[in-house]
Each structure stands twice: as C-alpha cells, then as structure tokens.
Design goal:
Number of strands of chain B: 2
Helix content of chain B: over 70%
Largest sheet of chain A: none
CATH topology of the largest domain in chain B: MetI-like fold
Radius of gyration of chain A: 24 Å
CATH superfamily of the largest domain in chain B: MetI-like
CATH architecture of chain A: Orthogonal Bundle
Oligomer: heterodimer
Number of domains of chain A: 1
Strand order of the largest sheet of chain B: 1-2
CATH superfamily of chain A: MetI-like
Largest interface: A-B, 91 and 92 residues
Helix content of chain A: over 70%
Order of helices and strands of chain B: HHHHHHHHHHEEHHHHHHHHHHH
Shape of chain A: globular
Strand content of chain B: under 5%
Strand content of chain A: under 5%
CATH class of chain A: Mainly Alpha
CATH class of the largest domain in chain B: Mainly Alpha
Radius of gyration of chain B: 32 Å
CATH topology of chain A: MetI-like fold
Order of helices and strands of chain A: HHHHHHHHHHHH
Distance between the termini of chain B: 59 Å
Structural class of chain A: mainly alpha
Number of helices of chain B: 21
Number of helices of chain A: 12
Shape of chain B: flat
CATH architecture of the largest domain in chain B: Orthogonal Bundle
Number of strands of chain A: 0
Chain lengths: 284, 417
Amino acid sequence: MALPKYTEPHYRIWHYIYLTICGAVFFFLIAPLFVIFPLSFNAEEFLSFSEGMKSLDPDAFSLRWYKDMIYGTKNPWGLAAKNSFIIAIFATIGSVILGTVAALGLSSRHMPYKGLIMAVLISPMIVPLIISGVAIFFFMAKAGLAATHTGIVLAHIILGTPFVVITVTATLSGFDHSVTRAAASLGSDPVNTFMKITLPLILPGVISGGLFAFVTSFDEVVVVLFLAGLENTTIPIQMWTGLREQLSPTILAVATCLIILSTLILVTAELLRRRSERLRGINQ
Amino acid sequence: MSSETKQILTTDGIPLEVSLKKAERKNKIKAFLLVAPLLFFLIITYVFPIGDMLFRSVDDKMVTQMLPKTFKAMENWDGQELPEEEVFAAFHEDFIKLVEDKREGKLSTQLNYTKNGFKSIIKKLRRKSKTFEEGNYKEQIMSVHKRWADVEYWRAIKRRAPEFTSQKYLKGMDMYVNEEGKIVSVEEDRRIHRVLWLRTLEIAFFVTVFCFLMAYPIAHLLATLPMKYSNLLMICVLLPFWTSLLVRTASWMILLQQQGIVNDFFVGIGLVADDNRPEMMYNKTGSYVAMTQILLPFMVLPLYSVMKTISPSLMRAGKSLGGTPFVAFWKVYFPLTIPGIGAGCLLVFILAIGYYITPALVGGASGTLISNQIAFHMKSTLDWSFASAMGLMLLSGVLVIYWLYNKIVGIDNIKLG
C-alpha cells in the first residue's frame, strides 16, 4: 500500500505508525505459536531456551521428546490419539449428514418457522461450553452413555452440527434451484437429483463445514472432561492434565504435531473456500 | 365482471386455489421433514437436558422425602416456641429409619446448608438414639445437645419442607433467606459469587475492548491491501483460529512464566530487575493477555468481511470534498463499519463471558471466572443443583446478548472464516 507522492509529511508519519501498529498486532497473533517449535526440540527438561540453544549448539537440540511421545513408558498419547481420531471422524460423519440434510430443508423457501428453528439449531454454538457440558452430562448420565465413546461422539455431533448448518446454508444461498428443477423435468427422482446435481455443487461448503466439525471435536475439552472415563481419554484431555500438573516438553512435541495438523486443515479450508467462491462467481 | 368471481379450475377439476394450497402444504412438510432429524436430535439430547438443569436447580425434594412424618407433624406448628412432643416423636421415627438406611449423613449435609451446626448434633443424636427409651422423645432429644432445645434449629428444619426452592439462585448472588423469611445478603467478606460475576463481566468487557482496538487496524489493512499480500497476512489470523485452544494456552504459559521469554525480554531491556521478575501468569494479567490473543480472530473476521465491501472511492470522495483523511475516515468509513463492529464485539463478548479452559490454566485464583466456579461445583463439591442454577443465570445473560445479536446482525448472517 504505497502512499501517493503528494502525501504531506505528517500523514506520512501517521501512515508509518499505523503500519507499525498492524505489524505489532500480527506479531502478537502469530508469534506465540512459533515459541513451541524450537522448545519442543530442547535436549533438556526445561521449558525455556538453554544457553546452548541460544548459541545454536547442535547438542542442545534433540528429538528425545518426540521419542518420548511415541515410545515413552506408560505413554497415554497413543491411546489418546487413537480415541481422538475415532471420535472426531464419527462425530464429523454424524454432523455432516444431519447438518447437510437440515440445511437443505432450511434453505427451502417453504420452510415454516425458519428463524426459530435456526436459533435452536445454532444454539450449541452460542451457549457457553460449560453449560452445554453440564446439560449433555446430565443427559448422557441418564441414558447410561457417560464414559463411553458413543456418548462423546453424540456430544460432539451436538457441538459440530451448527458449523455444518451455517456453511452449507451459506453455500445454498447462491445455489441456482433451476438446475434441480431441470433434473426433475428430465425424470430424475429427488434422491438421484441430490446425489448427482446438488451434492457435487455444494460439496465445498459441505467439506468446509465438515472440517469445522472435525476441528471442534478434535479440540474439544470442556464437554469431554465431564463425559470421559479413563478409557476414553483424548489428546485435549491429556494436554489439559499435563498443563495442570507439570509442563513437560513432551506436551510441546504433541503441540507441534497439532500445529502442523491445523496448518494442513487451514490450507484445505482456504482452497475449498476459493473454489466455492469461484463456482459461485463471487471472486473478482 | 363475472370472470373475476368465477373459479379457475385445474385440469383435474379442482379449484386452483385449493390445489395450490395443497402443493404448498406438501412443500412445507417436505422441508420440515428434512430439518426434523437434527431438530429432534437436538431437542432430546440438548434442549431437554437444559430444561432438566432448570428442574434440578429448584428441586429440593431430598429433605422433604427424608423427613415425611416430621413435616406432616410440623404443619400445625407456628414456629414461635419449641414444637410439641408429637413433632419430636415423628422426627425420631424418621431419624431411626434414616439411620437404618445409613442416610443420616446426607440429612446432616443438607440441613447444614440451611443452618451451620447440624453436622455435629446429628452425629451425637445418632450415637445417643441407640439408648433411647420409648416415649417422651422431646426430653430425650433435647438432652442430647443444647442446640436440639433451640427453637432456631427446628425452624431451620421446617424451612426445608417445600419441594421447590430458590435458595440456589439466591446463593449464586450471595443472598439467603434468614430466620424471619426475609432475603438478605451474606456478610461482606463472604460475598465470593458477586466478586466472580463482576470479574467475569469486567474481563469479558475489557477483552472485547482490547480485541476491538487491535483488530480494527489489521482488519482495515487486510481489506485494503492487494490480494496477494492480504492472503499471506490472512494466514496470521487464520492459523491461530484453526489451532487447538490448548496449544495456544500452552504457548502463553511458556511465554509468561517467571523465567519465560517475555520476562527475559523485560530484563534484557532493563525494564525490570532480574531478581524482581513480575508474576504475569496465575493472575488476571494472564487471563487478559491469553484471552485477548485467542479471541482476536473472532473480531478480525467479521470486521474484515464488512470492510471488504466498502468501496475505496468513498474515502477518496470524502477527501476530494475537502475533508482531511481523519475527517473522511471518521465521517465516512467508520460509520460504514459499525455492523462489523457490532458483530465482532458481541461474538467476542459472548465467548469471553463463558470462557473456562484458559482462565483455569493461566488465571490462578484472581483470574478465574464464573465458569470455573460452575465446573468446581460439578466436579469437586458435587452440588449439581447449585452448578445448574449458576449455569442458568449465566445462560440467561448470554441469551439476552444472543437476542441483541439477532436484532442487530441477524443469526443467518454469521460468517465463518
């Protein structure tokens, strides 16, 4: 954003102050994440930079915390990772199916009580997690589903569907309904029309909603803390316990892996968003 | 003129109006059937349980069911002087039954909520009741401990007779019903919940303000830079947004610890002495810093999506009409961004007011919020009805904000990413 040549000096100064402020805010946003990388390779058991690390001595760096994460004795991370992925995958599938079908109904112009129903469907996203946690715990305890994978998956479907509903409804808002009518006029039944016409067109929205649902489940800790037993431990629970009891560098190794995972998800989500905008003809 | 009143018929001979209505109803049912699975799933697993919380928060049947005969005998007692032998006998009968079921401990816990001092005298009564002789229970019970002869304690028992109570809500606001049945506040130094409510509001408010002050310039920069630069900078906003909350909290714990990088930096530039490093974690500062950084993307994204739609020619027009850049900004640009400001502020405030994980990890004792208190009562004291009551008080506050949000921005206009 170059300034025009005729800019007066004091506006020029203001402009540079503004850019400095922006730079500082970006630094504040992103820098904390990058502290974790180097420290996870620390050869010592401290969570601060050792003298050796500051002088870039190769002996000060090691992979011992990554080894501990994978091979460590009585290691909780393997089970936690397995549980986290199983729960997140099933919760994503459930949220995507329920949310997409509901979004199809919601974006029909014949839908009665649209505002009220939308408010109910989105409420799990707005109600503070701690309250959702208490309510869902009461339900699961009564249904005998506390401390089971099924219970946690159901809880995460509750928390994940609002994201799918929102993204798919947004995608459907730019959807040209004449194509489904065209399909119907050519003799296609509604299910066939959905699978062959509607779904491919709204797929970017469905997938990005699914990504939100996946991340919500994978990162969720408040509700799981109420629901999980020892068998159902997940990565967030292990991190929570670790951060409360003693901060070991193994947690930083796990955190680094999680940052890499979220970078992958971010890239996928961005590519999908651009593709969907291009399809809807919004971009440029 | 008669053609207007003449009914138009479809090819089947049914009036068009009827046929249209039928088709309309069919479409409505179709649309509803698509929403129904999710709607009913949420109503059963989510909406009803919140209703269950409401029921639990006012439910007080436990004591009512433990002392059925006592409360029946107490119906005619005016509460002025010690009750008659009849009440004591009924109480003795209920109590023996509780001891047989080993439930007298629960009774003492419950009664102790109403009035301190029940725990020890119930323990004593259990021991002595084994040697009780039949008849004249009033004398015998009163001789166990002098508090059993105090009319105050019998009034306290009577206050637990109703099946429903509002005392959990009063307790959430540090109030209680005193002996005369009036609602009064607890002593000044025991008002822990009010402090927590105020602190929650304070932290949520200031975190929102900080987020706004930091997000506005960068959202503006992102919206005005050419695409290829802004996409790159957008990663700085989106990467934290997609990163695990616990990872971000962990990084703040590393940064803010006493031997951490921020303190090292302060010592390095000579701001603080090496032996006098300030505590930046396990207090309010920790909550403020970490929550602001974590919630910042939720402010940037709505602001950005609004600013993106404002044409740069408006600012140029303002300047060409003689306004200085500041006047043009204040009179033209800023008012156009107000919808984004409203959306961002309400979103951040709603999220901040119910925050749990980050304050629990970096907030220490002085930086915890009302959510932490709710979790404490769910997990440690197991006073679930009190946790429910406080949860619903928090929820009603959030719903008011949600309603405002809906009025100002519209729920359908929520944008993600």
